[in-house]
């Protein structure tokens, strides 16, 4: 089926590919332009009303159209529509895809082509600092659900012709726009080609959950790999810093999350807050976050191991009060505290600031005190659980904190079931799970530790001054560095 030169026939063709008259949000208008019949179609709510009013009112003005007889649609477009991006096409699939994305369609009698006028204006929330990546200093802007806005926030910071955005269409139903952002002079061309080929081969109906759905399509993981394989950010300054290091970013329309490739485990320990403090202070907090990772994972399992298997050491270290508790009670207390603190964290994160404050007080003071008085928990288990929760809050990556929580449950269950051998088996399974975490392109998850690159590793461990931290080249992840 192809467009004809008759506008009535073209109207019927459009009705076969679009739910015109069957969906309330598709608006149509019959117009007279330059003495010819015309037909306009658009999505109500996705058009800039001011730009639409200016364009249509002018095109319907006889004085405005007096010197432009509609004999050549290309010349008409060039001479009369100058306030928007316009495309001429006769491809029905392209017409449908563009219209459902927001641009409007204008057809004129006598032509077998239509004008696609891009005056879309998506509804969106304002630009604000993301809740998951708040800082005491620095910029307060963050990505939102409009991909073009997110690209503009990065372009505002990197005004280089080498910054490119490559557009793709994903999903047979959703036709979600995604874009690769990269520095042309710094990107790994092999990785870029691999990402491009992978996206082009994606066979999916819709990206229902935006960036998170795309992550699961790019990195296929087994259930025993809870560690994140792709880093996420909602901060433009963080995204731009990775662009300058040669990384590739993936922007997904309708999602504020930006995906960063390639990914290593050390990226989840970085925080932009370090660069708003003096180098020595930033280094201190960075090393403190590194220390919080083993504490978060091992504190509760080691507490359970020592109190149940080594009571003499437990009494010497005063891990428990003088009265002894049975192994069963300790196991129940530790697991109950973990579940209780997870419920506390989940409830406060899923409610606004209006409720999170009262929930914190109620959960931390009243419920904890009553649980101890009713012998549903011990003060020691609550204390070590609270320290564990505190260390998880210092991690800048929510995904890393969730993965460590799963490993902690594994260690607790293995220690409770098999005592000392169970602890070491659980620890071995944890390390094996981390070591086998897949990443996109099968690049090393432990770079620059493996392959070892001391020059790159020390920039991750220590906060260097700005003048000393500028990379002179893109890091080569395949070679060892001195």
Structure description:
The protein has 482 residues and is an alpha+beta fold. The protein folds into 3 domains: 7-118, no CATH class; 131-263, no CATH class; 291-441, no CATH class. The chain contains 17 helices and 10 strands. It has helices spanning 7-17, 49-59, 62-65, 73-80, 92-101, 147-157, 189-201, 211-218, 236-244, 279-309, 311-316, 327-349, 353-373, 379-394, 398-435, 454-461, 466-469; strands spanning 26-33, 36-43, 85-89, 104-108, 114-118, 163-170, 176-183, 231-233, 248-252, 258-261. Strand 1 (26-33) and strand 2 form a beta hairpin. Helix 10 (279-309) packs antiparallel against helix 12, helix 10 (279-309) runs antiparallel to helix 14 (379-394) and helix 10 packs across helix 15 (398-435). The model has no long low-confidence stretch (mean pLDDT 83).
List the keywords:
17 helices; alpha+beta; 5-stranded antiparallel sheet; 3 domains; elongated; 10 strands; 482 residues; 12% strand
Please give the structural blueprint.
Blueprint: H1 7-17, E1 26-33, E2 36-43, H2 49-59, H3 62-65, H4 73-80, E3 85-89, H5 92-101, E4 104-108, E5 114-118, H6 147-157, E6 163-170, E7 176-183, H7 189-201, H8 211-218, E8 231-233, H9 236-244, E9 248-252, E10 258-261, H10 279-309, H11 311-316, H12 327-349, H13 353-373, H14 379-394, H15 398-435, H16 454-461, H17 466-469
Antiparallel strand pairs: 1-2, 2-4, 3-5, 4-5, 6-7, 7-9, 8-10, 9-10
